[in-house]
Automatic annotation (TrEMBL):
The keyword Chaperone does not apply. SUPFAM superfamilies: (Trans)glycosidases (SSF51445). This is Glycoside hydrolase family 1. InterPro entries: GH, Glyco_hydro_1. One of its GO terms (biological process) is carbohydrate metabolic process.
Length: 427
């Protein structure tokens, strides 16, 4: 039952600005809320009010032994209208980053996490290659603003989820349903990542820094045929996996654009990641082109299958494309009553630590309950509970477990008995 963390493996937590900051920010997800698309009718304008409570949250992280924090900055705050930069917002983020570092917490900074300023959205965002310079201008401004405080960057979070849910599934803004647009958005975002990767290195090199690390956060899942003897199920599985994650990983990591993606800016082949950022949550069971869930097996409160071994196979597949240290940039589960999250953390960490992969970071998603996109406030992923009415923060049982894993460098038999032994998944 016991296991030790891998050598050099550090545990951290993750968040996204639109999900925690609150405030009436003019971005596409606030607009999506006003259009009535959030399932529980909650608003990102409330969220966790982290914009005001940031110091309390960082102090709470520090008290839990967290030394690594993947956080994001909000483009719509920094550039509220095209070409106009908000210096007060830069001061705010610099103050937060400086305080983090004073508490011994190192940042991994995400530059884009699903949200666009509405001026960029109205220009049709990442569907147009003509908009790539606007994104690169923002990246340049951000790195010039924070480059002395931040050495590690995520350019874009989950381009495949952003593209698929926004332009094929229709659930994310802008709510389109087009295979062609989905492929175009992935191609544009992959190009943005590659150009940003080179730019960030160039800017920090001119600043005199040699410790720059850049990647993107890739959402990957296991794809399995519902009936492994059914040739159609097998074919759909292979195709779904390639369309959702395989082609994008190749493009972003190596500059090799394979159908359905296109190398629209003629970027050269290369190596465009200093670490592999992996977001892992679940397994998809396939009987047609798209997504599906197994009839049996454990599920979380959103009905996603819980499949711990998949985190290793997804990491292995990324590593086979490009040999780099692996950061698990997100892993977590929706467990509204916190009755099985400790088991989830335990089983995923144990699987990682039993692998022979160079996994050096694990960022739990997420630090505290937050505005969970389409689910609003109804889906709780945090190891810290948020009372949205009072904004009170309370460390959950799973948060105490995570704290003790960090302190002890793994899970002892005693920790297993205390936190994991009696927990069971839903079936």
């Amino acid at each position: 039952m016991a296991f030790q963390l891998l050598p050099n493996m550090q545990l951290g937590v993750a968040s996204a600005p639109a999900q925690i900051e609150g405030g009436d920010v003019n971005h596409n997800w606030n607009n999506w809320y006003h259009l009535g698309h959030i399932k529980d009718a909650s608003s990102p304008q409330r969220a966790n009010q982290h914009w005001e409570h940031w110091q309390e949250d960082i102090e709470l992280m520090h008290s839990m032994g967290v030394k690594r924090y993947r956080l994001g900055i909000e483009w719509a705050r920094i550039e509220p209208s095209e070409g106009n930069w908000n210096k007060e917002v830069i001061k705010h983020y610099r103050k937060l980053l400086t305080f983090m570092k004073s508490q011994g917490i190192e940042p991994l900074l995400t530059l884009h996490h699903f949200t666009n300023p509405m001026w960029f959205e109205k220009k049709e965002g990442f569907t147009k290659e003509q908009n790539i310079p606007a994104f690169l201008r923002y990246v340049s401004y951000a790195v010039h603003s924070f480059g002395d405080l931040v050495s590690e960057y995520i350019t874009i979070n989950e381009p495949n989820v952003y593209a698929t849910l926004g332009y094929y599934g229709g659930g994310f803004p802008p709510g389109d349903n087009s295979v062609q647009l989905t492929s175009k958005v992935m191609s544009v975002m992959a190009t943005c990542h590659i150009k940003s990767y080179r730019m960030i290195h160039r800017i920090r090199s001119k600043m005199g820094y040699t410790d720059t690390k850049v990647s993107f956060a890739h959402h990957a899942r296991v794809f399995a045929p519902e009936n492994p003897r059914n040739p159609l199920h097998i074919s759909y599985t292979v195709l779904s996996k390639w369309m959702f994650q395989g082609a994008l990983a190749k493009a972003c990591l190596t500059g090799q654009f394979l159908p359905p993606l296109r190398n629209i800016n003629h970027v050269p082949r290369g190596q465009y990641a200093d670490f592999l950022g992996l977001n892992y949550y679940t397994r998809s069971t396939i009987s047609k082109l798209g997504d599906g869930v197994a009839n049996d097996g454990p599920k979380n409160d959103l009905g996603w299958e819980i499949y711990p071994h998949g985190i290793v196979s997804c990491a292995q597949e990324l590593y086979s494309i490009l040999k780099r240290p692996i950061y698990i940039t997100e892993n977590g589960t929706c467990d509204n009553q916190d009755t099985f999250r400790s088991r989830y953390i335990y089983e995923h960490l144990k699987a990682l630590c039993a692998s022979n992969l160079p996994i050096t970071r694990y960022y739990h998603w997420c630090f505290c309950d937050n505005f969970e996109w389409l689910e609003g406030e109804s889906a709780r992923f945090g190891i810290v509970h948020i009372d949205y009415e009072t904004q009170k923060r309370t460390i959950k049982q799973s948060g105490r477990f995570y704290n003790e894993i960090i302190e002890q460098g793994g899970v002892t038999e005693q920790l297993y008995e205390k936190y994991v032994h009696e927990e069971e998944y839903h079936s």
